């Protein structure tokens, strides 16, 4: 049936540290209503009542058929009109159920209490996914989408095994944000097959700034791993290096130019540009001209260097504010 809906209401699941949600995009419509995308609270792994799960989804699908939407979904960029099938299955996944990381970015939500976030013991995801495949809940993997938040995925217990399970079952469009500190053979394999893209946020053009922002001494290691992933990838555009503009840390042209030099020197052909989330939230809609000009400069420089550029929605909002 033809109506306006989204992949996540129809086929999605987000595993969080203590909940199951439809997706991780409710916050884009406002922090006050994002809880509406929760399907089960107090979830800490183990069995899922799939009848109850799909009953909740059916109610939401019915709302969409009638042109009604939760406040958390109204005006969401992922809503689109198309012919949606009636069958109940899952092929869109977001993994956000762990918090430990091998890095310590000053801007990360884990920075306030790194010890607690690193100690937090996540539930085991592999048996849950294995059981979903066995029960036939996961289908149509040719149209699948997998996103990883976290925490650092590559240090997640059983990460390589989980990726291999998905890839061997035909997963496409696996998106990984990684610190790039630990090299993953499963990522390498998936890049070779062209079923994964990765984003590594280096945020600096030199060791000194990297260590100030990331608070670990891994600059050389990360670039070494970027080169290895880039070499393995069937298409170089699958490996993206990101720069988050962080006012007070790396918002100057010298750093930005050094970062572009590293990108080119290391054979990277795709980059991402973002602006630090807290700065964005506290400054919108009156962004400083300096940050606007730096984003505009990075857009221009990417074109000149023939780099594929992805601009995150916050940086895009700054660009569009003039
Ligand atoms: C929470 S991280 C987890 C994945 C992985 N450890 C990493 O950093 O790539 C997910 C993504 O959010 C970005 N991110 C985290 N905190 C941010 C912030 N305050 N502002 C903008 N982007 C942020 C990271 O760069 C990363 O691409
Ligand atoms: S409309 Fe947006 S917020 Fe709502 S479930 Fe779909 S992707 Fe998530
Ligand atoms: S690498 Fe990712 S999870 Fe780790 S501290 Fe940085 S932003 Fe947070």
Q: What is the structure about, briefly put?
A:
By secondary structure, the chain is α/β, with parallel strands linked by helices. The protein has twelve helices and twelve strands. The protein has helices spanning 7-11, 50-65, 114-119, 126-134, 159-168, 185-193, 207-214, 219-232, 253-265, 277-283, 289-304, 313-320; strands at residues 2-5, 12-16, 20-21, 38-40, 80-83, 92-96, 145-148, 174-178, 196-201, 239-245, 270-275, 308-311.
Average pLDDT metric: 96
For the report, how would you describe the main beta sheet? 10 strands, mixed
Number of helices: 12
The assigned structural class equals alpha/beta
| Quantity of strands, as a count | 12
Overview of the molecule:
The chain is of the alpha/beta class. 38% of the residues lie in helices and 17% in strands. The protein has helices spanning 7-11, 50-65, 114-119, 126-134, 159-168, 185-193, 207-214, 219-232, 253-265, 277-283, 289-304, 313-320, and strands spanning 2-5, 12-16, 20-21, 38-40, 80-83, 92-96, 145-148, 174-178, 196-201, 239-245, 270-275, 308-311. The strands form 2 sheets. Strands 4-3-2-6-7-8-9-10-11-12 form a 10-stranded mixed β-sheet. A two-stranded antiparallel ribbon has the order 1-5. The longest helix is centred in the first third of the chain and has 16 residues, at 50-65. The radius of gyration is 20 Å and the shape is globular. The chain binds S-adenosylmethionine and iron/sulfur cluster (2 copies).
